[in-house]
Amino acid sequence: MIRPMIAYAAVVWWPRVTYSTVAKRLEDIQRLACLYITGAIRTTPTAAMELITGLVPLTVFIKQKEMASCYRRRVSSQWFQNGCGHTTIKCIMARQIPESLFPSDRVIAKYYFDKNYAVHIAKREDWHNNIVSLNDDIVCFTDGSRLTQVGSSGSGVRIINSQKEYCYPLGYYCTVYQGEIYAILACAQLCRMREEYGTSVAVCSDSQAALKSLSSAKVTSALVV
């Protein structure tokens, strides 16, 4: 309760935490909270109590909140940089976290109600009893995966009619969800390249998250758009 209240509007006043007087006041507040939590004697160092409770110093916490706020606004094209004041957090974040400058899949929420496809999520019993009918002209199976041990991810498409398989390496930073969506997108592009606009296509995916994203009117992913 207290930490969010202290960090309120930190996007504007965070440079103040670099002042020794402000940092000392924040440390006193953190120390008081740690004493109440741990029940330690008053001579216990603050750093030791923070280590025991798992609390980061308030100055660090406020900078973390500001960096997260800056990142959310930047990927939504709502961050305006002027090189001074509180906006310098973007430069600090770029030096400390270079990955924050990578392109993001997150976009401002958009709504689409007219779609030229339909999403159907069959029940598990239907697949087990083999009563799912795929009467479309083209049937495709898609999949996306990520190997945690090596940190690589990729997508795959298999077109049953032509018995062709396609693999797409997606690098280190792609998530399983993004891999599933990319596989469906790649499958749709393959069908377009074959100029089979007059035929019906069934795309089978095992990711409910991807299917629900495609069926939802609200879209927050650039891949789904």
Number of strands: 6
* Uncertain segments: none
When the domains are counted, the total is 2
- CATH architecture grouping of the largest domain: 2-Layer Sandwich
Helix content: 40-55%
Gap between N and C termini, in Å? 37 Å
What can be said about the biggest beta sheet? Answer: 4 strands, mixed
pLDDT averaged residue by residue? 84
Supply Rg: 25 Å
Strand content: 15-25%
CATH class of the largest domain: Alpha Beta
Strand order of the largest sheet: 4-3-2-5
Enter the CATH topology name of the largest domain.
Nucleotidyltransferase, domain 5
Order of helices and strands: HHHHHHEHEEEHEHE
Count helical runs. Answer: 9
3D architecture notes:
With 225 residues, this protein is of the alpha+beta class. The chain is built from nine helices and six strands; from the N terminus they run H-H-H-H-H-H-E-H-E-E-E-H-E-H-E. The strands form two sheets. The protein has a four-stranded mixed sheet with strand order 4-3-2-5, covered by helices on one side. A two-stranded antiparallel sheet has the order 1-6. A hairpin with a 4-residue loop joins strand 3 and strand 4. Helix 3 packs across helix 4.
